[in-house]
## 1
Amino acid sequence: MNPSPSSAFAPLHAKVEATRATVADSIERALENTAKLEHIEAQSVQLEATTSTFRKESASLQRKLFWKNVQMKVAIGAGILMLLGAIVGVAFAMASS
């Protein structure tokens, strides 16, 4: 019994096909990973732009709130001075009468 040439190469052919399938699967995964990385990179760029905008707006808001706080302190201080002035004025008026 002489083995036919095709049966002698059958195991080798099966290994080649298995390797071909593995390589094709690896290439497909690599392409998927590349697509995922490109998506992540795009998200990163968008997040960086959003972060820059957030920083600018938060600094602007911080300045605005600082000046509102200063304005409130000045108003409270003026109110206290007016109240003290009224109390001193009443006290002098009562003392002189």
Note: The radius of gyration is 41 Å.
## 2
Amino acid sequence: MLEQLGEKEDFEAELNRRSYRHEEFTLHVERDGRFGSRAGWNPRYEVQVEHAPTQTVRSYAGGTRQDWIARFAKDLRNGLYGEPRVPRSPPAAMRKGHRRA
């Protein structure tokens, strides 16, 4: 479902933007059975995000007018999922071809 809506890519973009490792996160998506139409289409769902290193689990409401990605990004910025564990690039002076004297 998230792939169809483009939200998985948005989720991964937030992880990249904040330097978090994708493999540390697991997503679980469930349709919200309380809401539905006669045609059977239910635009509401819940996204559960699990972060293995911190054992943090948080649920976000998804669907029409529910920007769960923005709420997830805010939680990342506020440190709910700890600090990123991706090593930062070394300074330019330390990269190959740039040696210190």
Note: The domain at 2-94 is CATH 3.30.160 (Double Stranded RNA Binding Domain).
## 3
Amino acid sequence: MAFCLTLNDNFFILSGVAIEWESENMSGNPITVPDELYQCGCVKNIDEGLTAAKEIGFPVMIKASEGGGGKGIRKACNSEEFPNLFRQVYSMRFISGDTFIILKISDLV
């Protein structure tokens, strides 16, 4: 599965799991995602990542799940370039974590 937060009316969609929220509570407040749900959104290898990217749709961002401060994030526009970009992110992670997040890039950007 991929970690994909998409605003859709009063829901965030996280890898196909809808999380309901009330809009009046959103202003300036972060959303807390339970760790077990967060872990369901992580991938561990190229095959899992590519499956997730195809599921949520390209383009996607590939990033290490922890550390790095935003360094090493790569944008994949299609399945052909995904494996090489995933390897780049893997080699640039700053801590020894072995999980990665695939984020859908909004069509509104």
Note: The longest strand covers residues 60-64.
